[in-house]
Specification:
Blueprint lengths: L1 H58 L14 H19 L5 H21 L6 H22 L15
Length: 161
């Protein structure tokens, strides 16, 4: 009888071990697949952002600290607003992070405020400074979103010759 009981315990232990091992393998595989999917999505999103953010970066050239000959007029700002608006709906608004979207709309709100007030006259030095700082905040957020200016997360070992 003890041989039969020992055999039964052995079988039960083997079944329990197989079940625990199978569950562990299933959980580990599921976790790994989820991580791979997240990595792929993040990689694709970053690649898309680099592409569309590059275009927004170029548009932000209209928000420099100094203008070549004279400060832009309110009418020129309205042209800039239209260009930013086209970018948002035609190119990249979908890819803005929450922080970049906030910075983008900060720029747009200020452009509208100044353009409406100035009309055909030039904006003043303080308005140029305000637009520059908002543009800098936007550019800094764009750079952060795509990982520009940071060292790579994965570094390769140095090869000496």
């Amino acid at each position: 009888m003890t041989d039969f009981a020992d055999f039964g315990l052995g079988v039960a232990g083997a079944v329990l071990g197989a079940a625990v091992g199978g569950a562990t393998t299933w959980l580990a595989t599921r976790w790994q697949l989820r991580k791979e999917l997240q990595y792929g999505y993040d990689k694709d999103l970053r690649n898309e952002r680099v592409s569309v953010y590059r275009e927004l970066w170029k548009l932000s050239e209209q928000l420099p600290r100094y203008h070549a000959a004279e400060n832009p007029t309110g009418a020129a700002l309205k042209d800039a607003i239209e260009q930013f608006h086209r970018w948002f709906f035609d190119t990249g608004g979908l890819f803005l992070s929450d922080q970049a979207r906030s910075a983008y709309f900060g720029v747009m709100d200020e452009l509208w405020r100044i353009a409406d007030r100035r009309g055909a006259t030039e904006i003043d030095a303080q308005e140029v400074k305000t637009l520059f700082h908002l543009g800098e905040e936007l550019r800094a957020q764009l750079a952060f979103d795509v990982g520009a200016g940071r060292p790579p997360v994965l570094t390769s070992s140095r090869i000496t010759t």
